[in-house]
């Protein structure tokens, strides 16, 4: 079948690689794609949010399945666009409806959903500019650090952890006055949870779900989890401390109530759900939902899935996911992200990348690259993701770290301590 994948980052390269391996995929189109996805299918220069151009492409290329990688098209309603268009109605979309995508598109909506369906989460309140004074009062009731979240999408950078009340009050004011543009017209103020983060992913047809491999990502720019938040500096899969008891708690307290809540609230959901969790003294608490796979977790999770991904997608489309099974490798995956110097602040683009073809024993996923005059160059903050699979996490990390050192471009930066917290425990 002809398949269209929307997006152009590292997550989409990982999805493209898995889709292209499927016996059910005859032709893969990626819009807009990147130099990495071009190795898996045909890149088409169409934006993932240009719905009319996507419609034209689907009709022209006889597309039979659409897989949505990033959150933007989902929050803007691509699922609904396909369902409501008479020329596209027969084409299934892997992704939630616009209403259901609010689980990621609005932090306030997500917290209200958790509260309504008794899903354990941190204490919070949300405020817009008219509630500024009440917001300040609520901040003063919290212990430090204080977490501030832009309600809308802010490219993974709309969450601030403030170490003093003064800092929290100042940042709260700045956010309400446009620090993250329209994304922070409303701000969620939340208590800080002391624990260890992990990510759980499911694929759902809205009724049934399949549990995918667990992962842990590393969002801070600096070694030892210091400095500014980023889109993600690396990831590991599986999570060593996610034992049977913890996973049972997560399924009973988070996953099952979420799937049931979607049905109760009549929210159409056919795709991936990302559960961002904090484990506090062995007890899971929800931090956030994403309505798609995480990045760079996808680059660590998908290489461990041995099942035919397109077959699973068809189970989603036909609401027969209960008839499918996921086969998962027992190997450990370790992903290290190479970034442009200065990221997540100002960084320069157009740096030539070399030595990429000399890499062995790792999968190289393109995140922010472009080809200019036959040369591979940097075009984003996060440039490449290096994933290695091995019998142990320590071995996988060692291979990825070695290969991260080999690839060259000016002002290259990567964290050499990915997995440090679980290896030492």
List keywords for this structure.
425 residues, Dna Ligase, domain 1, D-amino Acid Aminotransferase, Chain A, domain 1, 6-stranded antiparallel sheet, 13 helices, globular
Rg of Cα set: 21 Å
Q: In whole angstroms, how far apart are the ends?
A: 46 Å
CATH architecture of the largest domain, by name, is 2-Layer Sandwich
Basic shape: globular
What is the overall pLDDT average? 95
Q: Tell me what portion of residues adopts beta-strand conformation.
A: 25-35%
CATH topology of the largest domain: D-amino Acid Aminotransferase, Chain A, domain 1
Low-confidence stretches: none
With helices defined by DSSP (H or I, 4 residues minimum), what is the helix count?
A: 13
CATH superfamily of the largest domain: ATP-grasp fold, B domain
CATH classification, class level of the largest domain: Alpha Beta
Estimate the helix proportion, in percent.
Answer: 25-40%
Class from helix and strand fractions? alpha+beta
Q: What is the β-strand count? A: 23
Integer tally of domains: 4
The major sheet is characterized as: 6 strands, antiparallel
Plain-language structure description:
There is one protein chain. This protein is α+β, with helices and mostly antiparallel strands. The protein has 4 domains: 2-95, Rossmann fold; 123-191, ATP-grasp fold, A domain (Dna Ligase, domain 1); 196-323, ATP-grasp fold, B domain (D-amino Acid Aminotransferase, Chain A, domain 1), CATH 3.30.470.20; 333-424, Alpha-Beta Complex (Glycinamide Ribonucleotide Synthetase, Chain A, domain 4). The protein is built from 13 helices and 23 strands. The strands form 6 sheets. Strands 12, 15, 18, 19, 22 and 23 form a 6-stranded antiparallel beta sheet that branches. The chain has a 5-stranded parallel beta sheet with strand order 3-2-1-4-5, with helices on both faces. Strands 6-9-7-8 form a 4-stranded antiparallel beta sheet, sandwiched between helices. α7 (132-139) packs antiparallel against α8 (165-176). It is globular and about 60 Å long. The mean pLDDT is 95.
């Amino acid at each position: 079948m002809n398949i269209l994948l929307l997006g152009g980052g590292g997550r989409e390269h990982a999805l493209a690689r898995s889709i292209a391996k499927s016996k059910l995929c005859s032709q893969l189109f990626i819009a807009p794609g990147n130099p990495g996805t071009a190795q898996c299918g045909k890149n088409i220069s169409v934006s993932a949010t240009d719905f009319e151009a996507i419609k034209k492409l689907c009709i022209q290329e006889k597309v039979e399945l659409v897989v949505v990688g990033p959150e933007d098209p989902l929050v803007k309603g691509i699922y609904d666009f396909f369902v409501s268009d008479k020329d596209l109605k027969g084409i299934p979309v892997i992704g939630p409806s616009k209403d259901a995508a609010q689980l990621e598109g609005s932090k306030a909506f997500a917290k209200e959903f958790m509260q309504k369906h008794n899903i354990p989460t941190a204490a919070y309140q949300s405020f817009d500019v008219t509630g500024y004074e009440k917001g300040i009062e609520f901040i003063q009731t919290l212990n430090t650090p204080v977490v501030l979240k832009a309600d809308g999408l802010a490219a993974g950078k709309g969450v601030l952890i403030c170490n003093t009340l003064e800092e929290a009050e100042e940042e709260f004011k700045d956010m309400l006055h446009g620090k993250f543009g329209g994304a922070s017209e409303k701000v969620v103020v939340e208590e800080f949870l002391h624990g260890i983060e992990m990510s759980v992913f499911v694929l759902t047809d809205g009724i049934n779900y399949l549990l995918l491999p667990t992962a842990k990502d590393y969002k801070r720019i600096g070694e030892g989890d210091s400095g500014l938040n980023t889109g993600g500096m690396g990831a590991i899969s599986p999570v060593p401390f996610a034992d049977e008891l913890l996973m049972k708690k997560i399924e009973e307290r988070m996953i099952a109530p979420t799937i049931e809540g979607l049905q109760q609230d009549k929210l159409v959901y056919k795709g991936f759900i990302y559960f961002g969790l904090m484990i506090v003294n062995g007890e899971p608490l929800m931090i956030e939902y994403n309505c798609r796979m995480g990045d760079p977790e996808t680059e660590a999770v998908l290489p461990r899935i041995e099942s035919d991904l397109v077959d699973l997608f068809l189970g989603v489309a036909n609401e027969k996911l209960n008839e499918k099974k996921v086969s998962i490798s027992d190997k450990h995956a370790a992903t290290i992200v190479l970034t442009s110097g200065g990221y997540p602040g100002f960084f320069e683009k157009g740096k030539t990348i070399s030595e990429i073809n000399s890499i062995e024993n790792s999968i190289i996923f393109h995140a922010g690259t472009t080809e200019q005059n036959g040369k591979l160059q940097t075009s984003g903050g996060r440039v490449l993701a290096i994933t290695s699979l091995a019998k142990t996490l320590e071995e996988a990390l060692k291979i990825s770290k070695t290969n991260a050192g080999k690839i060259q471009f000016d002002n290259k930066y990567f964290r050499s301590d990915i997995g440090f917290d679980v290896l030492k425990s």
